[in-house]
Amino acid sequence: MKRPWTSFTAVLLAGLLSSGAAQAQAQAEVPTEEQWYGWQNLIGLGAAYSLVGVGLALDEDTEWIAAVGLGVYALSGPIIHLAHQRPTEGGMSLGLNVGLPLGGALLGVGIACGVGTCRGLRGPLKAAETAIILGAVGMLTANVIDVAVLSFEEVPVTTGVAQGALGAAPAQYRPVFQYSGRF
After folding, report:
1. Which of 3, 74, 172, 177 qualifies as a FRET site for 60, CA 20 to 30 Å off?
2. How many independent structural domains does the chain possess?
C-alpha cells in the first residue's frame, strides 16, 4: 500500500520541478537599457509656460488662458509618465507639480509675515510678491526633478540586424546631453 503513494509523490515532485525549470527557461532575461524620455516632458512644459505667458501678457480678459496653462503644467508630466506605463512616476510628478509650487508659495507668505512685512498698507502686496517668487522657484524645481530624475525607463535592447539601404525602422531618440555610466 505504501508503494503507490511513494510513486505518486515522486511523479508529482518530478512534474513540479520540471515545470519550474521550463518556466525559468521561458523567462530568460532580456537585456535592457535605460532610455530618457524627458524631452517629451520639456515639450509639455514649454506649451504650459507659453500659455501662461500669453494669458498674462494680453490686455483683455484672457486670464483663462493662463489657467489652462497651469493645468497643462500640472498634468502634462503625469500623463506622459502614464503613457510610458509608469504610474508611480506619474503620481510623483503630479505631487511635485502641485506640491512644490504650493509649498513654496506658503513658505513665501510665512517668510514675509514672519519678518513683519505683512503689516501696513503694502504688507499684503509684499507677501504676495514673496509667494509668487517662491512658488515659481517651486515650479522650476519640480520641472528639474521630473525631467532629470523621473523620466528614465528600461527598454529592451534590440539586436543589430543588417538592413537594406531603404527601409522603415522606428526612430531612435538620443538626448543631446546625457549623464550615465556603463560598466
Report:
1. 74
2. 1
Residue with cell 497651469: 70
Beta bridge partners of 177: none
- The cell for 154 is 528600461
Is 126 inside any structural domain? yes
Dihedral (CA of 139, 144, 145, 150) sign: positive
pTM of the shown model: 0.67
Q: What are phi and psi of 35, to 5 degrees?
A: -125, 140
What tens digit of pLDDT does each residue of 77-124 get?
Answer: 999 999 999 999 999 999 999 999 999 999 999 888 888 777 777 778
For residue 97, is it within any domain?
yes
